[in-house]
Predict the structure of Triosephosphate isomerase.
Amino acid sequence: MRKPLIAGNWKMNLDGAGATALARAISDASPSYGKIDLLVCPPFVYLKTVGSVLNGGAALLGAQNMSHEKSGAFTGEISASMLKDCGATHVILGHSERRHIYKETDADMNKKTLAAHAAGLVPIVCVGELLEEREAGRTAEVIRTQFDGSLAGVSAELMAATVIAYEPVWAIGTGKVATPQQAEEVHADLRKLIAERYNAATADQVRILYGGSVKPDNAAELLGQPNVDGALIGGASLKAEDFLAIAAAG
Ligand code: PEP
C-alpha cells in the first residue's frame, strides 16, 4: 500500500512571519494526519525557520528547486547538500513554472534528479502537458518523453523512492482542474510506463501525485482514484485550513 503524500508548494509567497504562522497551524494539526505524509515546500530562505516550527510535528520539509552542481562558482544557486543541511528531505524538480518560465529541460531535470538522489533527497519530479498538446492528443507521448528524459539512469531502487507529480500545465493556478478520469488515465499510464522501464514491484511502490487547482471541494474525488497517491498543491496550500481539508480528504 502506498502512503498518500499531500505536498504544499508555497512558491514565491509569504514573508517570514506568514511562513512561520502557516507552518505552526499545519504542525499543530498534523498529528491527526498520521495515515498520510504531509510535506511543505517554502521558499529557500524560510526553510530553516519553517523546519524549526515543524520540528517534532508530522509534516516533512521540502524545497522547490535546486542546482545539480555540488558547489562552486554558481551565483544564486543552492545545492542538494545545502537543502539537506537546512532540514529538507524532499525537493520539487521540473515544476512547469521552472520548465516554461526558466526553460529548464528534461536533461536539466535528469541531472537534478540524479544529484538529489545522490544527496539523499527525495525528488518530486513534475511532468505535465500543455493545453495544445492535450488537444492534439499528445498527452501520453509528452508525459512519457518527460519521464524518460528526467529519470534516465535512475536505478530501480531509487525509482521506488522517487515521487512523480502529474501536473497538467493548463490546470496549474487556473482554477481548471483535470477531471478525476483524466487524472487517473495519465497516472495509470505513468505506472504502466514505470513497470515497462523497471518492473511491476517498482511501479507499485512509486507515489504519483496529481497537481493542478486541487481544492478542498475536488480533493476527495481526485484522491479516490486508484493511481492517485496524493496531491501537489499550490494556491490552496497557502491557507492552513484548505491544505488540511485536502489532507483530510486523502
Ligand atoms: C502547483 O503549482 O504545483 C499547483 C498545482 O498550483 P495550483 O494548486 O495553484 O494549481
In short: The chain has one domain: 5-249. The CA atoms of residues 71 and 79 lie 7 Å apart. Residues 9, 95, 167, 172-173, 211-214, 232-236 surround phosphoenolpyruvate (CB under 6 Å). Residues 180-197 form the longest helix (18 residues).
